[in-house]
Amino acid sequence: DVKVTQSSRYLVKRTGEKVFLECVQDMDHENMFWYRQDPGLGLRLIYFSYDVKMKEKGDIPEGYSVSREKKERFSLILESASTNQTSMYLCASSQSDTQYFGPGTRLTVL
Amino acid sequence: AQSVTQPDIHITVSEGASLELRCNYSYGATPYLFWYVQSPGQGLQLLLKYFSGDTLVQGIKGFEAEFKRSQSSFNLRKPSVHWSDAAEYFCAVGATLFGQGFSFIFGKGTRLLVKP
What we know:
The complex is a heterodimer.
Chain A lengths: L3 E3 L3 E4 L5 E7 L5 E8 L3 E10 L2 E4 L7 E6 L2 E6 L8 E8 L5 E2 L3 E5 L1
Chain B lengths: L2 E3 L4 E5 L4 E3 L2 E3 L5 E7 L5 E7 L5 E3 L5 E5 L4 E6 L8 E11 L2 E7 L3 E6 L1
Parallel strand pairs in B: 2-12
Antiparallel strand pairs in B: 1-4, 3-9, 5-6, 5-10, 7-8, 8-9, 10-11, 10-12
């Protein structure tokens, strides 16, 4: 079975802090994705990566950056967290046509 | 533009009753279509997918979905709902993104409530 893990299930940070969300997949997938999920808005793509050190902006990249130094790991970085970044963050990986999701990180920014 | 619409934000059904969740898509080519389920506090789990061939696809947990090109729909069905089916359901269409990899457009979800 494909396994996608995220470093934290729940995280509480203060405004202005730098926040790292980590995602690891164990199936040697090429593609990895970061979404945020908010009530009534569904899933919105923040960034995705189709290879090591490669990244592409999704629909809502503002306020975020990403890092992919190794194939199995894809990190989402909030350079200076703000309250409007309080959300559920979901990581996913895929080889081609099916995405597999991690359990999510619920981030609260105070 | 590509889009996915799930017209129903909430649906309530009685346990044992049949279920149909609606999904309409807008996509220029033959779509790759998916249904995912999200239990409270969890990530998304793939229920089923359609790429080509038989337009009625079977998935896990007794779910099925039917692709109707003429209606641009991919509705999810289950003949008899169980209390454990209470969750949020997402329809998605797959698209090749910038010729690299494969990305997904998700609907906003339908929350299913099951009455005892």
